Amino acid sequence: MPEELKQLDAFLADVQARAYRMALASLHQRDDALDAVQEAMFKLVEKYRNKPADQWPPLFYRILYSRITDIQRSRTRSGKLFSIFAGRSRQGEESSEELMATFSDPANPDPARLGDDEKFGDRLDHALQELPQRQRQAFMLRAWEGLDVAQTAVAMGCGEGSVKTHYSRARQFLQRKLADFVEPEATVKQH
């Protein structure tokens, strides 16, 4: 197998679980989320495998969110109702400390102590559902995927200023919703 295909395979293997969680957060149905991720992976390989590896993340997420939007539009046209967000798998999930670290200042590696992991995870899932889609996208791409502002803008198909606004609003909302899981003396700084 050529080296660039090995790199692409490794990229896809690394990103698939997080991409699924992002798709599930938007689509609320397991099969639709799996389809969206699989189609995004196929399209990336088919159309962009020869692009430099540093361009794959924003391209992949742009394809993924385009597919998510297509599925949502299709549902609207066909009159299907969204199902209740399927519960996340308890195995292989991030701990509440890892998830809460996405709200904290990366310069301070010691996030505040949190309450029960399961309660935090449930509350986070519900809070993510309450976010407008663009804010959820910006948050997941920046905080969970580690894309920078420029890469996130490419992935979302918008300007860097919009990314900053969506991300900031998402963080503020999630901080308010999850405030009871953070000790009072813990503060979270804006990027």
Write up what this structure looks like:
The chain is mostly helical and 191 residues long. The chain is 65% helix and 0% strand. It contains 8 helices and no strands. It has helices at residues 3-27, 30-48, 56-78, 96-100, 117-130, 133-144, 149-156, 160-177. The longest helix is centred in the first third of the chain and has 25 residues, at 3-27. It starts with a helix and ends in a 14-residue tail after the last helix. Residues 80-115 and 184-191 have low confidence and may be disordered.
Question: What attributes does this structure have?
Answer:
65% helix; mainly alpha; disordered C terminus; 8 helices; single chain
Tertiary shape = globular
Over all CA atoms, what is the radius of gyration? 17 Å
- The topology string of helices and strands comes to HHHHHHHH
Task: Compute the average pLDDT.
Answer: 77
The percentage helix is 55-70%
Report the count of strand segments: 0
State the end-to-end CA separation. 41 Å
Structural class by secondary-structure content = mainly alpha
Regions with pLDDT < 50 over 5+ consecutive residues?
Answer: 80-115, 184-191
The percentage of residues in β strands lies in under 5%
The number of helical segments is 8
| Largest sheet data | none
